[in-house]
Amino acid sequence: MKTIRIASGQGFWGDMLEAPVQQVEGGPIDYLMLDYLAEVTMSIMQKQRSRNPELGYATDFVPLMERILPACVERDIKVTANAGGVNPAGCSAAVLEVARKLGLGGQVRVGIVRGDDIMDRLESFTRDGIELRNMDTGEPLSTVIDRVQSANVYFGAWPIVEALSRGARVVVTGRCTDTGLTLAPMAYEFGWAKDDWDRVAAGTIAGHTIECGAQASGGNCMVDWDSIPDLANIGYPIVEASADGTFVITKHPGTGGRISPAVIKEQLVYEMGDPKAYITPDCVADFTSIHLAGDGTDRVRMFGIRGNPETEFYKVSISYSSGFKAVGTLVYAWPDAYRKAEAADRILRERLERLGLRFDEVLTEFVGASACHGPLAGTPSGELAEVELRVGVRSESKADVERFTKELAPLVLTGPPNVTGFAGGRPRVQEIVAYWPALIPKSVVEPVVEIAEA
Predict the structure, then answer these.
(1) Which of 68, 96, 115, 169 has the most CB within a 10 Å radius?
(2) Cα within 13 Å of Cα(229), Cβ side
(3) Of 73, 71, 64, nearest in space to 91 by CA
(4) CATH number listed for the domain at residues 319-436
(5) pLDDT tens-digit series, residues 294-314
(6) Which stretches within 61-195 are classed as H helix?
(7) What is the location of CATH 3.30.70.2750 in the chain?
(8) CB 197 within 8 A of CB 283
């Protein structure tokens, strides 16, 4: 039975720069999948593009392609990446320039998937009764539309399939699903029909398994984490896919990390909602149907996956400005470290109240005592050597947040003793970018696929 090997090289923008190179050079693969986008990333890229129209994409992608493109051409490796962000055309142009620089003119075709950016259509949508209600609160987008920074539809695998069918060596998309970057090569290579729900669901789950890079090969893993070998040289996961929808998760030999049923199970529940209805633009995958079993060293076979028809909606990722925030820290040392940090927090809050400052929220964490588990931690037992007081505020008033940043330092000389950790200066005021998830009918948006050649 025909198989293809799809390697994960990036789990987010900022992941290990050497991972894609290792995947290309470490052994045979057919596809390299690079996932750069998170919800907040789109607003960051939109801001970059507003300052420079040529930007708005994952800039790390271009020098990476300069390193690996000759090998990809020589070994017939194709690349699927959502590195295009809010400017897939600009990203593809930069890749084509690299190809020409490398003397690969005429040998590299880049597929561009765009149409996901609907920023300039929001007003017309709301006039037409498409309210883009917040999936969490039910509020219509009209309540924040004047503060929106980015709005992108999640397309799925099929525009990428089209680009591959038109000869693309590299496919650059805007906002598409993480899973679609892996499903697309499987659907293209095996000729799956769009309504072959079980196989489409299998490709979706394969994509979900490797979308976070080394999180599927032992990174960030709770199970026997201290026995996972050679994390400094961790191998990123590879899907070894078959036409019947079964697949094996593995990695290159000689690399660190671990591929095991326990590690894969942890990744499967990542960002999990209803396990029977994992909704993507391509299908509704049933995670309760997954069977998995060890298939040798660093190999996990997955099979028996079932899927259901796609819905009539795309998800829309919208970001909007939601005021300002600042976070500051102080560290209190033994003796009575926790009591000192509590006292400092109380003093700070009293001073902020006396100044009449207006905050939507003041959040205090005692790092070393209760930060990670919050109220579940209770009062720490035993004597703590040191506790970091971390206080954050948010408000629509930038001036009030700025004043907060000037009230933390005085605690050094006007609060409890044995304090340190303020060498970095006053906290920085940051704009809050909030997330607005919504649904939009598939009938009103259309992906656009273009092919460009070096």
Answers:
(1) 169
(2) 9
(3) 64
(4) 3.30.70.2750
(5) 999 999 999 999 999 999 999
(6) 61-75, 88-101, 122-127, 158-165, 180-190
(7) 319-436
(8) yes
